[in-house]
Amino acid sequence: MKPLIIKEIVHATGGEYTGKNHEKQIKGVSTDSRTIIAESLFVPIIGPNFDGHDFIGNAIKKGAAAALCNKSKKEKLEGLLFDDIIFVENTSTALLELASYYRSLFSIPFVAVTGSVGKTTTKEMIAEILMTRYDVLKSRGNFNNEIGLPLTIFCLEQKHEAGVVELGMSALGEISRMANVVKPHIAVITNIGVTHIEHLGSKENIARAKLEILEPLKKDDIAILNGDCAELWNARKNIVPKTVFFGEKRGDVLIDEIKNLGPNELEFTISGKYGEAKFKLPLSGKHNAINAVAAVAVGFEMGFTKEEIQQGLSNLKLPGMRQEFKKSKFGSDIIDDAYNANPDSMKAALDLIKELAPYKMKAVILGDMLELGPLAKKAHFEVGTYAALCSDICVFIGSYADALKEGAIASGFNPARIYTFPTVQESVQEIEKLVKDCDIILVKASRGMKFEQITQKLVGGL
Predict the structure, then answer these.
(1) Where would I find the Mur ligase C-terminal domain in this sequence (predicted)?
(2) Residue range 421-430: mean pLDDT, rounded
(3) What's the pLDDT score for residue 141?
(4) Which end of the chain is more exposed for a tag (fewer CB within 10 A), N or C?
(5) Is 367 annotated as a binding residue?
């Protein structure tokens, strides 16, 4: 991090500083008193189950140079002999304000990515493409919310030449606040699905929330959008920046042909705005090819050559539990795709196992898809019907296991080949004997289900 001084932080946050050392340097920003390093600013966040203000003293003991504090939380400082406190109305808001100021110190271009499905994969693809020419800052792991995004921005250094960040959300307004911190030159929306419908109420509201990423874009900036999503296509007349639509059925860049070449390799062809071109990707699945088209569009719009774009795609390595191929202790192939799940990504993963092993014995181990609200039962039923078309053995786990089972049976699947468990813990004891005769096994659920326990059992780690 480029050092800041307290005077800058006070100005950026509109805070009130009680100390006298306005020139004191700050060399880092942290929201975690357990990992804070010396000369950092501690930002206490109030969460649903904790209050970071309770740990200001711990942060100071570990060498924090200064701390923010909500004006309404001054009583938390009683008995603390420390002057370098900056009082603000809301520490979470102040964190975003400070990140916005820090971002303004760098003139490099940023690409911001959002979408209901595939945003992490697309972010990683874009970053790899840009890294063939630039020193790139990218958001780590799931640092895609109003805490993680600012912490990513504070990692900017003079060496960086471009940035790629992922923006997630669970409510209206969140992406707007984050996008106005990042001020991207290019914004990408991978698609619009039903994830977070529990909080937003409708697919139209989800689209509104995702489209907030375009708010800071000007006429010379670029929006790269999935043309096959009706919600995005229908919004095109009201979009200010230059638009590039991609998709299978409509758009400026069309994906014409997709060939799965093996468990970790596919080839796809594009046509349209950038001419005809063929690319290879070290992943499988049609959904990944479509995500790659968005990344390819970013590359071309930023002036990269086809060869540089291909090199970036070839360098791709996804974080764990995202379509990760593993070997079970009994010899079967496992597709560990349990980082997250929603109806669209479930169907894409089921398509993948069907494509990769059309004549082999297939098992699917599926769990709950979270945050679907009143659509949950219907969505799980529909995934169950789809799973019946793609597998030989079905194992359903969680609160919606029965809905998945009902869907599979409605599709004509043999009930004797369906196994249900209310919890992961109960399934772990039985799972191996249920699927050990299968050639390939898909493991997928929302992250909150902790399906890594199942994969570890099958691989041999438990």
Answers:
(1) 322-447
(2) 97
(3) 78
(4) C
(5) no
